[in-house]
Amino acid sequence: MVRKRNIFKSTGFLLIILLIVLFAIFPFIEMLSISLKYQFDWGNPSLIPRKINLESYKELLNIGQETKNIPPSIKRLLEKSNLSKKQKRAIIKKYEDKGNIFPFLTYFKNSFILSFTASFMSLIIAILGAYSFSRVHYRGRGFIQRGVLFVYMFGGILLLIPLYQIAVKSGLARTPGGTFFSLIIIYMVQTLPVSLYMLGNYFRSIPYSIEEAALIDGCTRFETIWRIIVPLSLPALSTVFIYAFMIAWNEYLFASVFLRSYKNLYTLPIGLKSLFVSKNAIWDRIMAASMLTAIPVVVMFMLVQKNLVSGLTSGGVKE
């Protein structure tokens, strides 16, 4: 007997879902709205700006800032004169106001390199470690597997000083490159336990008979991992990579201590904090920087969402 759907329950459930979604995305809508408003429009409660303001985005991305402070007479001279490119650059350089430019692109590049490298290294190590936990039998495997999660028993604030002392005494913190490498290792260690746990559980769901067939055909253990396990685990690998990337991308505590002496290596979280307390602390610029900071994670989700599904091995083998 088919039970008749209750239209009131369905409507109520739909309204609840819409409220939850609206509650989650409203801060981003408000952030986008403020970033597109001029100063005279900040008091406007409407989310739709009266006039679109893109100047903050242009300033952060350094679009058209070279000639912003050049007087009109000098601009006309540059356009009509037969000066060489080198001479024009020398004239333009005299009018550059570097003290009012927020180095967003530099911070963006530092954050991306740091986050991508740490998450990629964490993913590679997690693949090998999770495979050993789920497929290889050896003495002490259970103890090591449970001990991996031991690092999560301590908060980052407790590990900050010991890790910084290790970096200083080992000499890594004495150079910009060594400090950057230290942060990569720290972010990798932070995300590795959960990455191992997630991938280990996913690898156990892959039928072992598929690996046996590959081994019978002459594949080595490593060939089995890269040719069989990795292609069948793309949903889990995508999830783990995004998780590790988000942790490193938004991390502030360790970066604020390790990079405090190297301003040219600042990441976006530190840069946004410095922007908030500087003379450039204008609301539209702060909100524009926050929007640009959120873009990489959103783009990553959009690119890999087709892999964030389960059941790639469903029907592959009938046990």
Write the layout of secondary structure elements.
Elements: H1 7-35, H2 55-60, H3 72-80, H4 85-94, H5 104-135, H6 141-148, H7 156-169, H8 176-204, H9 208-216, H10 221-232, H11 234-250, H12 253-258, H13 268-276, H14 283-304
Helix pairs in contact: 1-14, 5-8, 5-11, 8-11, 9-10, 11-14, 13-14
Q: Which labels suit this protein?
A:
mainly alpha, 319 residues, disordered C terminus, MetI-like fold
Question: Can you walk through the features of this model?
Answer:
By secondary structure, the chain is mostly helical. The protein has 3 domains: 47 residues, no CATH class; 35 residues, no CATH class; 204 residues, MetI-like (MetI-like fold). The chain is globular, with a radius of gyration of 26 Å. The C terminus is likely disordered.
Compact description:
The chain is mainly alpha-helical and 319 residues long. It has helices at 7-35, 55-60, 72-80, 85-94, 104-135, 141-148, 156-169, 176-204, 208-216, 221-232, 234-250, 253-258, 268-276, 283-304.
